[in-house]
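Many introductory courses stop at the sequence. We go one step further.
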Amino acid sequence: MARRPTIADLAAQAGVSVATVDRVLNGRHRVREETARRVYEAAGAIGYHAAALIHQRITADLPRMELGFLLQKETQPFYQAFAHAVEDAVAARNDIRGRAHVEFARGQAPNDMAEALSALGARTQAIGAVCLDHHVVTRAVEALKNEGKPVFSLLSDFAQGVRESYLGINNMKVGRTAAWMIARTARRPGKVAIFVGGHRWHGHELRETGFRSYFREYAPQFEVLDTLVNLDTRQLTYEATLNLIDRYPDIAGFYVAGGGMEGAIKALREEIEEGRFPDTGGPAVVVNELTPDSTTALQDQVVTAVIATPLRELAAALVELMINTVRSGPAEAPGQLFLPLGLHVPESL
């Protein structure tokens, strides 16, 4: 059986005296915050049994903050990763006693999202949310703002002029990047398509605009087809991808601008296995977010590229803005923070 770490072990690991550790544990005399935190980190490193007590001692005087996060599609790996990122970002703060309240929208109806925002606002001080851009959602955001509870739009902007700030990647550039990649990697010019989740996702609209504008400006030899709406679902995307390939066997490429890429990947794999693209090698395909499905599809060269959101950086920046707004009040004018997008190709993994 392994020996249980002692106070002397903890003091040696932290580089302080046993008396200092005793003061941290028992709170008899104040210890500098930097020293107390070093003792806490050392306790975690060696598995000291009272690490939780030390954490309680050093955070007792910090302000309590309840931060809310409304995300979409709980079962999707991307949103699971996003949830973990915001929880870790809150836990990493050493200037507050923070708690992350993470909720997932029940559906994509505006009323459902508005109700979820209001319910989350009842028990939090600030909210970061992924929502549709719809007047019902805007009214909910405005009501929360009037209560002194700022709302930050994430990934896809909404409630412009009412929300506190937008955080995410520049969706216009995302669309142009996808178009650039397809134009450069397609076997030959031809028809290209784009899937969006719906016309109320502001980010998808911007991605479509960027996608089309790039082809108009730099690759007019390609024909952009009418936009396909997949409601961010894998089944609709699967069926629409099969239909797209049936209608246009020589399609040059397509971009899934929102969710549902798993359906497109499944359809492409089936078509490849059936020998559908013996001469062309298949269309150039771009999807969003690095997940187990898209990673494997990249490695197998089923898709050409993945455009990704830097979730850890986004979560850290979001929590910083939320805390500052709770402390100091809203900004004079709503703003936006663009993070650099990630671009992954088969050889970069």
